[in-house]
Specification:
The chain is α/β, with parallel strands linked by helices and about 500 residues long. Helix content is about 30%, strand content about 25%. The longest helix has 17 residues.
Length: about 500
């Protein structure tokens, strides 16, 4: 049997059709109901002339219909391409021109906007989630009359593209990360094997479903026969509400979301506090994880083990710092997980190799060749590896600050500045300077009532922990740092652009 994404649902439904598969607020579906919905949707896609190799774009908030569409597309060999629901009309138009999907499926809230966007494209428009809603094809109405049995079409091959996830390119144009059926299956089971057993409590999925991690964590839960508890927003109320309601065993939050959770004392302490002892795995990653944050997670989730994960849409989870080493190797991302090889190149760039890598960027051969060479994915991250093999990310190749002939990694400076009194958030960027080429600039968000520190204050705080050329020479205050919506990573290029010359 080929290794394909749809096999995850088939196996889970075969092992227990009545078991809870997915929730979203008060909505819920069993594995049997998800399979029936996916089959109806697969028949509907075929009726709308979607064929193997076509792209099916989905522009919607997180919905349970989206889960059915994902498996339906996979079953017939079409590539599922989820779009960020926050995309502007111009951004969606750019994606349609790039991906040329056979079908754009939207929720009712975006139907009227989408009607104008498909004009001039060979893309049909369909609306799902509310029968009778126009414009476009009424996908829900068609699916209601379709068969709940699997369509009699060949299964896709392992190398067929399962999903296309959009990431921002350096030029501002989107890049479509193609993940094959085989790589999807391998990513799913590699993650599930790390902290799952068959059945039992589910997993709270804090990532939205336009993001690779949203699907990856959901698939990990489903491959282990567990429920994926989806959220409409990754705020403290919804995260802790799902923990209290469903008693999940797995919870993954990016550092920014963990801070929201940990800053909710009324929910974590007192007579009405949420009981967090059900959580066996409290996971994090994607951006810098401080010791202070890990200590907070341990206090709030005392029964949980914690792993710091490193990966990307192109690689999935690739490196992990396990619980026993959280405080003995602070700042590290750990070792490559089983099945992954990692290497620090001569120029300091971290390279990753595994069977779970992306197939490439959709119709971007030059960009693909830049990052996939000789079986290695060039991450663009600068890393260091100690004698015990622990890897630490020290910066981005493209974000390195070059000052006076020396090289400075922003992440390293940020780590040294962490904990400075009165600073609620900070980022380090390089800004142009006639004498030095660039100088190190600390961009800070102040806490309430805090005074803006000067460069000399920050330099004193760093002391001799870093070489003097790495110390900030300028300090700028902003109200908020620009961060990516899904992972909360600082957008340094955008921040430097905002600061100007």
């Amino acid at each position: 049997m080929p290794l394909i994404a749809n096999d995850v649902l088939t196996c889970a439904a075969g092992a227990g059709r009545a078991r809870l598969a997915v929730t979203l607020g008060d909505e819920r579906m069993t594995f049997g109901e998800v399979e029936a919905l996916a089959n109806r949707f697969a028949h509907t896609l075929l009726e709308l002339r979607v064929r193997p190799g076509d792209r099916v774009a989905w522009w919607s908030d997180t919905t349970l219909e989206g889960v059915g569409l994902y498996f339906a597309s996979s079953r017939i060999g079409a590539a599922f391409a989820p779009l960020n629901p926050a995309f502007s009309d111009n951004e969606v138009a750019s994606v349609l021109a790039y991906l040329r999907p056979a079908l754009l499926i939207v929720d009712p809230a975006r139907a009227e906007r989408a009607e104008h966007l498909v004009v001039g494209h060979d893309t049909r428009l369909a609306t799902v989630g509310a029968p009778g809603v126009t414009p476009g094809v009424d996908f829900s109405a068609l699916a209601a009359g379709a068969s709940p049995s699997a369509p009699a079409v060949p299964l896709p091959g392992e190398d067929a593209v399962c999903t296309i996830f959009l990431t921002s390119g350096s030029t501002g144009h989107p890049k479509g990360v193609m993940v094959s059926q085989r790589a999807t299956w391998l990513r799913t089971h590699a993650g599930a094997a790390a902290h799952s057993t068959m059945g039992g409590p589910g997993e709270v999925v804090t990532f939205p479903l336009f993001h690779m991690a949203g699907w990856n964590f959901s698939m990990m839960a489903w491959s282990a026969g567990r429920a994926a508890h989806l959220l409409r927003r990754a705020d403290a109320e919804q995260v802790l509400g799902a923990v209290g309601r469903w008693s999940p065993s797995v919870l993954y939050c990016i550092p920014a979301v963990w801070r929201r959770v940990l800053d909710s004392p009324n929910a974590l302490d007192g007579p009405n506090a949420v009981d967090t002892r059900c959580v066996e795995w409290a996971l994090t990653g994607t951006s810098q994880v401080t010791v202070e944050l890990l200590e907070g997670i341990k206090r709030a989730f005392p029964a949980a083990r914690t792993t710091v994960n490193y990966g990307s849409t192109e690689t999935a989870r690739a490196v992990a710092l396990r619980d026993p080493f959280l405080f003995t190797h602070p700042g590290s991302v750990g070792h490559p997980i089983p099945g992954v090889r990692a290497m620090v190149a001569e120029d300091g760039e971290l390279l990753i190799s595994s069977d779970r890598l992306m197939s490439g960027y959709f119709e971007l051969p030059a960009e693909t060749d830049q990052v996939l060479r000789d079986g290695w994915y060039h991450t663009g991250d600068l890393a260091e590896q100690d004698d015990e093999g622990f890897l630490s990310i020290v910066g981005r190749k493209k974000e390195v600050i070059r000052t006076g002939g020396e090289t400075v990694a922003p992440v390293e400076v940020e780590g040294a500045l962490a904990g400075y009194p009165g600073i609620a958030d900070l980022a380090v960027v390089g800004i142009p300077d006639a004498q030095w080429g660039e100088v190190v600039c600390a961009v800070v968000v102040l806490g309430e009532g805090a005074a803006l520190p000067g460069p000399e204050d920050l330099r004193a705080h760093i002391g001799d922990r870093l070489a003097p050329f790495k110390h900030p020479r300028r300090v700028v205050q902003v109200d908020v740092l620009p961060r990516t919506s899904a992972t909360g990573q600082v957008q340094r290029a955008k921040l430097a652009q905002q600061l100007g010359p």
